[in-house]
Amino acid sequence: MTNKYSTYGNLAQKPERQRTNPLKPRQTGARGIKTQVNGALRRNVLVLCFVAAIAAMVLVYMQCCIANAGYKLDSIRHNLIKTKQANEQLQLDISRLKTPRRIQYIATTELGMVLPAKVFYAHKNQQ
User: Fold this and answer.
1) What pLDDT, in 10s, does the model give residues 43-60?
2) Residue 18: Cβ within 10 Å count
3) CA angle 106, 108, 113 (to 5 degrees)
4) Of the candidates 34, 38, 35, 11, which has an alpha carbon nearest to the alpha carbon of residue 23?
């Protein structure tokens, strides 16, 4: 009968298995089994993490710039609407101030002018 344990007297001991993982090769030393760290792999992982962090920071910065530009655009649109309303109000004021009745009223009351009694019009081609 085959057993997965080899016995030596009254001690049971597992047979050693071969490790086939190339990322962590093992070395035996004076104190027992030690793992040897793959330095190139560790460096590559750290570089990858650093590049990912930089890319994330750039992405966040770009999103902040886009949000800031959106706020500025909204502010400019708001100012444009205000300016258009003010322009319409000023156009109404101009048309109100240019009415002939208002001009006549100011001329007679404030400037002391008098309306003529009769008005004659001359035309160049009279027969």
Assistant:
1) 999 999 999 999 999 999
2) 4
3) 120
4) 38
